[in-house]
Design a protein that fits this description.
Layout: E1 2-3, H1 6-12, E2 27-31, H2 38-50, E3 55-61, H3 65-71, E4 76-80, H4 93-97, E5 103-106, H5 114-126, E6 131-133, H6 136-140, E7 155-157, H7 161-168, H8 172-177, H9 179-190, E8 193-196, E9 202-204, E10 210-212, H10 225-238, H11 243-265, H12 272-285
Parallel strand pairs: 1-10, 2-3, 2-5, 3-4, 5-6, 6-7, 7-8
Antiparallel strand pairs: 8-9, 9-10
Length: 288
């Protein structure tokens, strides 16, 4: 199986034109966060912006708007009606689908309930732009992964082994026993690009292509690192390149930034936000 490398990153990311402006560098609709999980929205959104995105539009429960807006002043916001548990109400689905965007990031800190299940399935079946589904977006469809077959546009999923196990109806140990085959099989069966996270993240495409990533380290084994990866991946896709190439590039850059963070701070003390801080160095190291 091929490895990701700097050349993959250069292939995935178009040269930045001298006359670029926010309207030409991609727009991302981020549907992330819930009461008690605002940090996931901040980490994923900040990572998206640090990865070259032109415009970030954060759709979130109105109760956490002040928190996330303070954390990401560069974004625009869609504060939404929420249910009693502080999660986005399904009543917002038509409004969200009519927004203008180049790609969607869905799931980081979203929460799992009847409302969010309706939103996730509604986007899979009704959205015509590429999507990255992470975290609770995957948990929302764990009982019905067949809905992925109804997607109208490319979908990238970014599960860790436990989320992959829920989707496949097996154990996390069984996932890790054969990571490459698990990712390849799921990608082919459901027609989605599958990023199976972990040491040696596997990126598999429905057409049979697969790559393994060798950047990254154990200091990244902390809550929030996956939100950062999802934000990077969605940002690159919104900027207009092929989703599989973007997924491979995002995994490589995420791990490389994590390696820079570990070198600077040590594996014990580094945080997901430190990975974001090292993203500029990772892009530069790739010649961008």
């Amino acid at each position: 199986m091929e490895h990701t490398d700097k050349n993959i990153v250069k292939k995935a990311i178009a040269p930045r034109p001298n006359d670029a402006h926010k309207g030409t560098m991609g727009s991302l609709l981020s549907i992330c966060g819930s009461y008690g999980m605002a940090g996931a929205g901040i980490l994923s959104g900040t990572a998206a912006l640090r990865s070259g995105l032109g415009l970030l539009k954060c759709a979130l429960p109105k109760s956490i708007y002040p928190i996330i807006a303070a954390g990401i002043p560069e974004s625009v916001y869609l504060p939404l009606e929420e249910n009693p548990d502080g999660r986005i109400s399904a009543l917002n689905l038509p409004y969200l689908l009519e927004q203008k965007y180049d790609a969607v990031l869905l799931g980081c800190g979203l929460g799992v309930c009847d409302d969010t299940k309706v939103i996730v399935e509604g986007f899979i079946c009704g959205c015509e732009n590429p999507m990255v589904l992470d975290a609770d977006a995957l948990n929302c469809i764990a009982d019905n992964p067949d809905v992925l077959k109804n997607a109208k546009a490319p979908v990238v999923i970014t599960p860790h082994p436990m989320e992959m196990a829920r989707l496949c109806g097996i154990t996390a140990a069984e996932v890790n026993d054969n990571r490459e085959m698990t990712a390849r099989t799921f990608a082919a069966r459901y027609g989605v690009i599958t990023v199976l996270k972990g040491a040696g993240t596997v990126i598999a495409s429905p057409d049979g292509k697969a790559r393994i990533n060798m950047t990254g380290n154990s200091g990244m084994a902390t809550g929030g690192s996956g939100d950062v990866l999802a934000g990077i991946c969605a940002s690159l896709i919104a900027q207009g390149r092929l989703p599989f190439d973007c997924a491979c590039a995002a995994v490589y850059l995420h791990g490389l930034a994590g390696d820079f963070a570990a070198k600077k701070l040590g594996k014990i003390s580094m945080l997901p936000s430190d990975i974001i801080d090292e993203l500029p160095k990772a892009f530069i190291a790739c010649g961008l």
